[in-house]
Amino acid sequence: MAKISFVLLVVALIAFVHVSEASKEKDRDEKGIENDLHEAKDLIEEDLKEKEKNIKSLESEVNMLTKSEKMLDDIGEAHKKGESLEPYGKKLKKFTRKVKQAPKEKRGSVVQNILKDLGLNGGRN
Hints:
rod-shaped
């Protein structure tokens, strides 16, 4: 009888050890998953900030292109009517300064910026 109770005690201890190791492993896995989730969240937030920055850059470039298109339309209309183009000289100089002051990143074409933002090869670095 003593041998049977000793064997049962050993089996119970082995089962307890397996259960405790499994719970420790489960806790480690949960912590690992939680850390991975935090890292993924940080990467997503960083990527989102970069995308927002690129969107703002594209919006400012579109505004600049819209202004230049309007100016060119005005100059074209003045030329068609035979008006003097002198008043547009100052506007063109101001606009040229704005374009030269723009960061080099903004000087690329809109299509290249969009392709770059999408991660396609057409957007050269």
